[in-house]
């Protein structure tokens, strides 16, 4: 009888261990897929916010608009934006610029642990004191997004692509 119980125990252990291992493996894979999907969503949100901030600016709210844009940038990109802020503020106010924009689509080109490249297609309108009416604009910026502060994704570069 002892031999039968020992065989049953061995059989039972050998049959459920692979199933348990497979379940653990699938659980870990699911968690990794969820983590990557959340990272993708966070990257898209950071890139879209920065692009909208770049193309939506008003002579009436220039300081607030620039402050928000700078907050979404990494240290290096933030320094570049700050260096250009006074000139941009002056141009926007002098020309009475009212620009609005929206994201049309976004695509994640690459996503690594702490960096991503994103293409954001946006459109908007620009009005200023020399324009007869607001002019439509289509903008396809490509952004580099980096994870920098406490897991937050910030934009480290923006450039317009043709």
Describe the structure.
The structure is a single chain. It is elongated and about 80 Å long. Strands 1, 2, 3, 4, 5 and 6 form a 6-stranded antiparallel β-sheet that branches. The chain has helices at residues 2-55, 62-71, 75-94, and strands at 57-58, 98-111, 115-127, 135-139, 141-149, 152-160. It contains 3 helices and 6 strands, in the order H-E-H-H-E-E-E-E-E. The mean pLDDT is 82. The chain has 162 residues and is α+β, with helices and mostly antiparallel strands.
How many helices does DSSP assign?
A: 3
Poorly predicted runs of 5 or more residues: none
Assembly status: single chain
Strands, total number: 6
SSE layout:
Elements: H1 2-55, E1 57-58, H2 62-71, H3 75-94, E2 98-111, E3 115-127, E4 135-139, E5 141-149, E6 152-160
Antiparallel strand pairs: 1-2, 2-3, 3-4, 3-5, 5-6
Helix pairs in contact: 1-2, 2-3
Brief summary:
By secondary structure, the chain is of the alpha+beta class. Helix content is 52%, strand content 32%.
Supply database-style keywords:
3 helices; 162 residues; 6 strands; six-stranded antiparallel sheet; alpha+beta; single chain
